[in-house]
Design a protein that fits this description.
By secondary structure, this protein is of the alpha+beta class. It is 37% helix and 18% strand. The protein has five helices and four strands. Strands 1-2 form a two-stranded antiparallel ribbon. A two-stranded antiparallel sheet has the order 3-4. The longest helix has 14 residues. It is globular, with a radius of gyration of 16 Å. The mean pLDDT is 93.
C-alpha cells in the first residue's frame, strides 16, 4: 500500500520509491513487479540505455483512491501522530480538505484522485 500511496503523490521512478520507502532494492523490485502484474501500475520506458521505467497508476490503481483515503483517515483517528496528521488530502479546486465521505469540507464537492492533492503537514522522520 505504501508504494501505491507514493504513486498517488507523484512518485514514478524506482529510485524515488526506494529513497522514500527506504526498503531493499530487491523487495521494491518484487513489489513493483507484482503491482504491474496485478494491473495496478504500468511501466513506461523513459530511458533506453540503460533501460529505465516510470511506474504509473492504471485506472484500476486510481480506483484505490477511496481505500487509501479511508485508511489514512482511520489512522489519523485511531493511531494519531503526536504532532497531528502527517498528510492532508486537499481539493484542488478550492483548497478544502477531504472528509471521510470523500467530499470537500469547504465546498461540499466530491473529491477524486483527479481533483485531489496530497500535502505533507508534518515533516517525515525519514
Amino acid at each position: 500500500m505504501l508504494v501505491i500511496r507514493d504513486a498517488f503523490v507523484g512518485v514514478r521512478r524506482f529510485d524515488e520509491f526506494q529513497e522514500r520507502l527506504g526498503i531493499a532494492r530487491n523487495v521494491l523490485t518484487d513489489r513493483l513487479s507484482r503491482l504491474v502484474d496485478e494491473g495496478i501500475l504500468e511501466k513506461h520506458e523513459y530511458q533506453e540505455r540503460p533501460q529505465r521505467f516510470e511506474y504509473r497508476l492504471t485506472a484500476k490503481g486510481v480506483d484505490l483512491f477511496p481505500v487509501l483515503v479511508s485508511l489514512m483517515k482511520w489512522g489519523d483517528r485511531h493511531a494519531p501522530e503526536e504532532n497531528g496528521p502527517p498528510l492532508a488530502v486537499i481539493h484542488r479546486d478550492c483548497g478544502g480538505e477531504i472528509d471521510e465521505r470523500l467530499l470537500c469540507s469547504r465546498c461540499g464537492e466530491p473529491v477524486t484522485a483527479l481533483n485531489a492533492e496530497a500535502r505533507q503537514l508534518v515533516p517525515s522522520a525519514g
